[in-house]
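2.7 Reproducibility. Because tokenized structures are sensitive to small changes in the input, we list the exact sequence used for Capsular biosynthesis protein CpsI, including any N-terminal residues retained from the expression construct. No trimming or masking was applied before prediction.
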Amino acid sequence: MKHALVTGAAGFIGFHLSKRLLREGYKVTGFDNVNDYYDVTLKYGRMKELGVDHEHLDEQDPDSAFQFVKGELSDRKDMESLFGGNDFDVVVNLAAQAGVRYSLENPHAYIESNIDGFLNILEGCRYGGVEHLVYASSSSVYGSNKEMPFKTSDRVDNPVSLYAATKKSNELMAHTYSHLYDIPATGLRFFTVYGPWGRPDMALFIFTKAIVEGRPIQVFNYGEMQRDFTYIDDIVESITRLIPKAPESDNGAPHNLFNIGHNSPVKLMDFIQEIEKNLGKEADKQMMPIQPGDVPATWADVTDLYDMIDYKPKVGMEEGVKAFIDWYKGYYGV
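Resulting structure tokens (single pass, no recycling of outputs):
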């Protein structure tokens, strides 16, 4: 039985991936600090779905295929204990301080988690004999790039947020460790992930909650935005197929980068209209200028991903928005 470490297991993607890997027959150790960047009740709910009571972590069944460990990615002792007490075949690092706009308010959190924490992951893989490190990057690394769709071969030297800069740094750090210590590593540039159990700081969640509660929504760049929205099931399917595809040494390092996006950008106003249709209620829209650190459009070229795993993201915006709102109504009793 393969043993996978999934960091950020109480988070949106980490939770869904952990469930999938358990179905695939993996033993999974989930790691998370369960911070209060957003409502921890949602994180506790995800943990419960994975069979873990957050109030009784010391009472987990040692024979369960899923074990949850609470700790800090940036704490060397926590990470040394995690790697020293386990023999991981694969590490999927999804833990990070997320959010573009929050990086303007609390920059230190991004360096501690996304830089210091990722270094601890790399050191754990270096000494732990890990077969494959898969880690989350972000579409935000494309920054002010104008040419569409975004390709992994594009230069990404112009980040427009600290969050994006930390994710680009992760790619450079992973490549260096791959080169120096022959660690097979794959970086994933996620494009606007959404779906059931999604993050409350993301547009779909924010818009849905506001419309349900009869509050106005803020529409940035006066609605002139496009996003390559990517449904959570397509993200998880892609990661699951990539895990066995550990890269071999190429150009001096066994390191790959892939976009994971739907490859079909959606206009923000069309996205809002789909939310309104599913809620049966029109939004009160406040048109606003673009926010610092934001970009007007994203679009993923997924040719390399398809060539590697013979899979292209499939779930369209209409189906995905409906699935989220159905979950939201059920979870919050709307």
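The chain has a mean pLDDT of 94.
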